[in-house]
Design brief:
Layout (H helix, E strand, L loop, with lengths): L5 H11 L3 E6 L4 E4 L1 H7 L3 H4 L4 H4 L7 H12 L3 E3 L14 H6 L5 E11 L10 E11 L1 H22 L9 H18 L3 E8 L2 H8 L1 H18 L6 E6 L2 E7 L3 H18 L15 E8 L7 H17 L5 E4 L7
Parallel strand pairs: 9-10
Antiparallel strand pairs: 1-2, 1-5, 3-4, 4-5, 6-8, 6-9, 7-8
The structure holds guanosine-5'-triphosphate.
The site of guanosine-5'-triphosphate (GTP) has 16 residues, from strand 6, helix 9 and helix 10.
């Protein structure tokens, strides 16, 4: 090892490294401020050196950086400041365009205690003098990739569980919810109601007005139904083509029937013209089947759906534009 070259070599490494390197002494005075720090902070080393770090950058006072530096100097503790909790504590910018936008670099910061041996002479000879090393890395790219991934994941989640046409929950979301709510009702000994809602004579509507207007009708009806389901626990889902399902946790048979009446009425109020509607009302109507799972009743989600569906088809058979109620069959607990 060629001893004389070590120090200059280390210095050029410190200046060339793609990370911020700052060293402060026990009084928080800056004793090292590398080129990367000058470039990204806009503060040259000759200005920073000898200054109190928290006077140079007062916004670091009282935050996680000051706490980490104090822990390093007083207790010899190292800290890693998570970029999630401490996005950009130092006023550092990736490039001039980022300065113009006022967009700080996202930072990963490591704070490490250092102990320099004091010189050979004097009262402190041989003793370690506490210092603190602060390393900073630019994680802006990783952070924006992470943000993009999070947004894409959220979009995929939305697409997986919502209906592309109406924006309400889709069949997949319904299947998971009815299963979850049935188990919750059994566990808590509470009631659970289910409404199956179907637009009457939708095929002739489509045939007469066209598929696009049919889509518009589905959007209007689902919007009207959704507007009435105000509780966060209620769920309206598109069960199939022109069939919707409403899960009503904690609603007994009477409450579910009243909700069905309100939904039925709300669709009538839309007054969507339907030239081929049966009966005197030449407008879009719905038929609704209602079923309620009673506390302690051993019934499966499938039995609840079967009962509500059975009631819906009874409503269809009896002329449509009406509400029918059925009781789910008991199944083995
Ligand atoms: N426009 C449109 N139509 C759809 C969509 N999904 C299903 N449909 C149509 O909905 C109609 C359902 O018809 P049927 O099941 O015969 O029921 P209906 O004519 O409403 O008769 P009843 O339910 O017995 O009153 C079919 O013509 C489907 O093509 C959709 O996303 N958009």
């Amino acid at each position: 090892m060629q001893q004389p070259f070590r120090l200059p070599l280390l210095e050029s490494v410190l200046e060339a490294v793609s990370a911020g390197v700052v060293v402060v002494d026990a009084a928080h005075r800056i004793v090292l401020w590398n080129k990367w720090m000058s470039r990204h902070s806009g503060c040259a080393a000759h200005k920073a050196l000898g200054m109190d770090l928290f006077e140079l950058l007062p916004e670091l006072r009282g935050g996680r950086v000051e706490a980490a530096v104090t822990q390093a100097l007083a207790n010899n503790f190292s800290s890693l400041l998570s970029p999630t909790l401490n996005r950009a504590p130092f006023p550092l910018y990736s490039n001039p365009a980022a300065i113009a936008r006022g967009e700080r670099m996202q930072q990963a910061i490591a704070v490490t205690p250092l102990a320099f041996p004091a010189g050979q002479m004097g009262p402190d000879a041989g003793q370690a003098i506490p210092h603190c090393l602060i390393q900073l890395n630019d994680v802006s790219m990783a952070a924006s990739r992470e943000k993009l991934l999070r947004e894409q994941t959220e979009l995929l989640r939305m697409q997986t569980f919502s209906d592309g046409l109406t924006g309400i929950a889709n069949r997949r979301a319904f299947d998971a919810a009815i299963d979850r709510e049935t188990r919750r009702a059994k566990r808590n000994g509470t009631v659970l109601s289910l409404l199956m809602i179907d637009i009457d004579h939708f095929k002739p509507y489509n045939d007469h007005y066209g598929h696009q207007q049919g889509d518009g009708c589905l959007i209007q009806v689902s919007g009207a139904l959704q507007a009435l389901l105000q509780r966060s626990v209620d769920m309206l889902a598109r069960y199939g083509g022109e069939e919707f399902a409403a899960i009503l946790p904690d609603n007994d048979a009477g409450q579910a029937l009243r909700m069905a009446e309100a939904l039925h009425e709300r669709v009538l109020k839309l007054a969507i013209p339907h030239a081929h509607a049966a009966g005197p009302l030449k407008q879009v109507t719905v038929s609704i089947g209602v079923a309620t799972l009673l506390p302690g009743q051993p019934a499966s989600p499938a039995a609840l759906i079967r009962a509500a569906d059975g009631a819906l088809y009874a409503a269809k058979r009896q002329g449509r534009n009406r509400i029918m109620v059925a009781q789910p069959e008991e199944t083995a607990p």
